[in-house]
User: What shape does this take?
Amino acid sequence: MIRIIILLLAFAFVPGVAPVRAAEAIQLPELAKPGRVLLLRHAIAPGVGDPENFRLRDCGTQRNLDAAGRQQAARLGKRIAGLGIRGVKVYAGQWCRTLETARLLGLGPVTELPALNSFFARPDQREGNLDGVRRFLATLPADGPLVILVTHQVTVTGITGVYPGSGGGALLQLEGSAKPGLVGELRADY
Assistant: This one.
């Protein structure tokens, strides 16, 4: 917890970093409106960061979802499916915990989007990743179906200023630009 507080304080004073802010909690039916994007932090994966021997395609070297995280992701997917939203598009970073979260949602095929990868231990990749997410958002139709981007806390916070818990996120409204409006926070206690 102390490490998280220190990181938040460090991010608060870095030029170009969105300040961490509180956002109004949203209810799941908000996801059904046209032009919505859910920037979702991966489900519960105990620990912080990744081990020093981290390798992208080797889940044995990464922090992974635990049983509670797998249940959390599946439960959210069932609740979203219950809204009857058609044509949901799901994208995920290439870390095992983001891909597993995205697949466990059970909302359709998952497409890897490298811009959603973590830059927690790679601050030199921060701006490139965030610019990639913004460029991707700018390509989405303002009246399209729900898009879910499964990523990491640093990405959600970097784009929105919201610091979500594991399995939580920030809901955006597309406005035809790389800077969609923030609707609110999907809290992990759904």
Summary: The chain has one domain: 2-186. Residues 1-17 have pLDDT under 50 and may be disordered. The helical segments are 2-12, 67-81, 96-105, 126-138, 153-160.
